[in-house]
Amino acid sequence: MLDESMEILKKRIQQIVGLLEKLKEENGNLKSYIIKLEDEIHSLKEELISLREEREQIKSKIDSAMSMLDSLAIEEEQEK
Predict the structure, then answer these.
(1) Is 34 exposed, middle or buried (0-12, 13-18, 19+ CB in 10 A)?
(2) Coil, helix or strand for 1?
(3) pLDDT tens series, the chain, 80 aa
(4) Can you tell me whether residue 23 is helix, strand or coil?
(5) pTM of the complete model beyond 0.70
């Protein structure tokens, strides 16, 4: 009876140890995945900043071109 109880306890401990090993491995995989995602987030933030700056430059150029067109239109009206 004692041998049987000890064998059951031994099997349960082995199961727990196996589960802990799997959980440690999964934890390591998840940490690696989180690092990868954080790197991707950082990269996307940099790209977003760059795109916003580019958008502002384009907007400025469009505003400048529109201003030039407006001044041309005013000059044409004055010449008539």
Answers:
(1) exposed
(2) coil
(3) 888 999 999 999 999 999 999 999 999 999 999 999 999 999 999 999 999 999 999 999 999 999 998 888 776 677 65
(4) helix
(5) no
